[in-house]
Amino acid sequence: GDALQVQAALEAAEREGVSDCILKLAVSQAGYQVASAREQHAAWVREAQERVARLMSAQEDGSQQNCQDRLAEVRARLQERQFAHRRCAEKVLSARLGDSDIALLFLTFGAWSSLASLQRVEGEVELEYRSRFESVRTSAREDRARRRAAAR
Asked: pTM value?
């Protein structure tokens, strides 16, 4: 079926000398799909950060442990989403480029880039919310101290 037709088309392209052009088009298409996945991921990250921000502001009314659990859940979903996009890009590239050295190089770079991006995002999330956690803890301590002083 399809695999045989693709193989025959690629062999014909090689004989005709247009395989380089096909490879360039495949890389270009894969790059477009990766860029699209990154845009979707960036939008999801913004949305997730907004949700986390709302959760953090609601933390004053709720349990600190509950918010920490939700933050961990959001971080896990963020990581899952990023790895899903990377796997999608890998599948597209593998399907388009087969076993070529360029595909291996591109996949390796993509995996490295995704990991670096994930580490950067995790660091930013941790830095952003660490100060909020500390301010909530400080605020809770001060509130308890005021209540104790008022009770005396």
From this structure: 0.34
